[in-house]
Design brief:
This protein has 150 residues and is mainly α. It is built from 8 helices and no strands. Helices cover 44% and strands 0% of the residues. The radius of gyration is 22 Å and the shape is extended. One of its GO terms (cellular component) is nucleus.
Length: 150
């Protein structure tokens, strides 16, 4: 499975999945298939693996997540996919580097990670209070204009 992922054999990955192959199998450095999809930049295989519930937050012996590897290898489409699925842009590897620090300065990947980080930092942790309407018309039709009650 790892070999098929690394060498971008999409149809072989689909076949192996259909036959029950383990998508979270690890190599000698504890990389799973998703790490190799990020390394090779094959977003099609990455999507297949994520749809099959592959662990997006898995780290290897260096503490690198698939997002770290995609950032380091400048794999923009994989970075966007991982961020859209909730990958942690603030996660540090064993060297103390975040995916942003692994990327090339001012590259498209760096800009994307920087924007994501900035948006997450500026967003409130709790969503704002939302008004709830108790009744759409407390006048029960006796008035020409309905009176909503919040």
């Amino acid at each position: 499975m790892i070999w098929a992922t690394e060498y971008k054999h999409v149809e072989l990955v689909k076949l192996l999945l259909a036959k029950g192959s383990d998508i979270n199998i690890r190599d000698n450095e504890q990389n799973i298939c998703l790490h190799w999809a990020a390394f090779s930049g094959c977003v099609d295989i990455a999507e297949i693996l994520l749809a099959a519930k592959c662990d997006l937050h898995a780290v290897n012996i260096h503490g690198d997540s698939p997002l770290h590897i995609a950032a380091r290898e400048n794999r923009y489409e994989c970075v966007v996919l991982f961020l859209s699925r909730g990958s942690d842009v603030a996660l540090k590897n064993k060297e103390g580097e975040t995916p942003l620090q692994c990327s090339s300065l001012n590259s498209q990947v760096w800009v994307t990670l920087q924007m994501n980080k900035t948006l997450k930092e500026s967003a409130p942790e709790k969503p704002a209070q939302v008004e709830k309407i108790l009744s759409r018309d407390i006048a029960r039709g006796y008035e020409r204009i309905p009176i909503p009650c919040i």
